[in-house]
Specification:
Elements (H helix, E strand, L loop, with lengths): L2 H19 L1 H10 L4 H22 L1 H5 L6 H27 L2 H8 L2 H12 L6 H18 L4 H27 L5 H23 L7 H25 L5 H8 L2 H13 L5 H25 L18
Keywords: Membrane, Transmembrane, Transmembrane helix
Pfam families: EamA
Family: Belongs to the EamA transporter family.
């Protein structure tokens, strides 16, 4: 990699990680304005699609790309959008009912679930470090949920659902992104997710009121986290291997709760701290293994796990 490309890749990684870091605090700020997790993400994805639309319409190749997809690939794109909708809604619900540290820690297990899904559905061999990481992560989730009751326990469940839907979304993306570039894939998936969330939100009832602050922060969430964070991640994948990019973006597990603490004054309980540390040990163990494989430090017959976006 040339010096200029290395600098561009590093800037993309730094900008993307910074954008993702604000996900928890912006989500919580909007939730405090009275918007439900469904309506929050309707506005978030609505603004995201609106910002992407001019670029999509101007790119003839992006518009024609869908015609090259098989029926199976179109089905996977549809499933990917539905999973993204489920992820966004469950992630916001987790932040509404539980502290940001427990939500982010449990969400980080999606990387291990992706490996498990690859073994179950794609016939890929699951490496031993991934199995050890899964055991540690499950223990960490159990610690987080040990004293959880009522709404907090529901928040733990929503964080787990966010991890599962993220993993399925990632697996779908691995298949479709082999043929579609970032722009048409992102536009298609975001549009499907927006439609699904809008339908679910309308069925749940209209919001009592939508404040200008809520709309403004939703726009920030779309610009800073969805486009600034995830678009930069996809750009960084041109210069760095997937395990490196994934490891950098998992810093959100620390930076997100830290911003929530300093900006909103929310301190996580000790069980979240202990459980989060155990979860991150499991995820970190596996990410270190993937990084070593990607750099040829560990002999392996398998390729490092590819990743789609990390749509926090």
């Amino acid at each position: 990699m040339g010096g200029e490309k290395r600098r561009l890749g590093a800037l993309a990684l730094a900008a993307g990680a910074a954008g993702i870091a604000f996900s928890a605090v912006l989500n919580k700020t909007i939730l405090e304005e009275g918007l439900s997790p469904l309506w929050l993400n309707v506005f978030r994805l609505g603004f995201s699609c609106l910002f992407l639309l001019p670029f999509f319409l101007r790119d003839a190749g992006a518009r024609k790309a869908f015609g090259t997809l098989t029926r199976r690939e179109k089905g996977l794109t549809l499933l990917s959008g539905l999973m993204l909708a489920g992820h966004f809604a469950s992630w916001a619900a987790a932040l509404a009912w539980a502290d940001s540290l427990i939500a982010a820690s449990i969400w980080s297990t999606f990387s291990l679930l992706t490996v498990l899904g690859s073994a179950l559905f794609l016939g890929e061999k699951t490496p031993v470090p991934a199995l050890l990481g899964m055991v540690l992560a499950v223990c960490g989730v159990a610690i987080c949920a040990a004293d959880a009751q009522g709404a907090r326990l529901l928040g733990v469940a929503m964080a787990a659902l966010a991890a599962v839907t993220q993993a399925v979304y990632t697996l779908c993306g691995r298949a479709v992104r082999k043929k579609l570039d970032v722009l048409p894939y992102t536009m298609a998936v975001y549009s499907v997710a927006l439609g699904a969330l809008l339908l679910a939100a309308l069925l749940s009832g209209l919001p009592d009121a939508v404040s200008l602050k809520g709309l403004g922060v939703s726009m920030l969430l779309a610009l800073v986290c969805t486009l600034g964070g995830h678009s930069m991640q996809n750009y960084a994948l041109r210069f760095y291997k997937a395990p490196t990019v994934s490891a950098v973006f998992l810093t959100e597990v620390f930076t997100g709760p830290a911003l929530v603490f300093f900006i909103l004054g929310e301190a996580p309980p000790m069980s979240s701290v202990l459980g989060g540390v155990v979860i991150l040990l499991g995820v970190g163990w596996y990410m270190l293994y993937e990084w070593r494989v990607a750099h040829g430090l560990v002999p392996s017959r398998r390729k490092p796990q590819e990743c789609a976006e990390l749509p926090q």
